[in-house]
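Morning, I've got a small favour to ask if you have a moment. I owe you a coffee for this, so here goes:
>
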Amino acid sequence: MTPTQVHQQYDVPYISQVVRVNPSLDAIEFEWVVGPIPVGDQVGKEIITRYVTDLNSGHTFTTDANGRQMMTRVVNHRPSWKLQVHEPVSGNYYPVNSRIALKDESRGLQLTVLTDRSQGGTSLANGTLELMVHRRLLNDDYFGVSEPLNEPGTDGAGLVIRGKHLVQLSTIKDAASKHRPLGQELFLPPLLSFGQYAQEYTTKYQTTLTGLTSDLPPNVHLLTLERWTAGQLLLRLEHYYQKGEHSTLSLPVTFNLRNLFTHFEITG
């Protein structure tokens, strides 16, 4: 199967999207461009992307807490107090730093949407997920900022936002082993740089570097490796699977730091 992409242009000229299906990527990619949002009609607008499925998720979905723990959310409900519903839409929106998901327990399926930036998200209807990708408001909503959310940009026309969602459908038992590594790839992509190339470039400069002598365990992530003081490095490793979300990858893991790095040895 070769990679396929479809370009979508909506009735309004400031919203477009490219949908990509790549067999090498275990997800469907939605790259959207929104803006500048026109406000000549003096009406503010909030633009969302909604994914509609036949999954029976009820009124429950999950959102991440800063890319770590997946938190269970129930529409019009709070676990620690009796909620009086005055805002049926915004009262059910939650911060989505990296992913939002819903489950169909009867079919053993999970839909996960990974984001490339923080957004607001919710599931207001059975089998649906939605994320707010852009908005431009002309009046203060009286929810704390004390000003309208209206960023005109340098040209005064408004901001143009380009972003990406990766949509995964998997079994519930395999969901974490799919969305956890993909989330790391989306959050920490390679940084590309370009320069003038000459034939002797590879002889003058080192063009490859391997920092580890072997792979880390699949559930361990190298979070920080930076100079701390002279002769000292700050090394932080994290187990980035949540307790109970995978039969094996959520278990504790032990490995040896000795001879792990190619250019230095940990002495203490």
The mean pLDDT is 91.
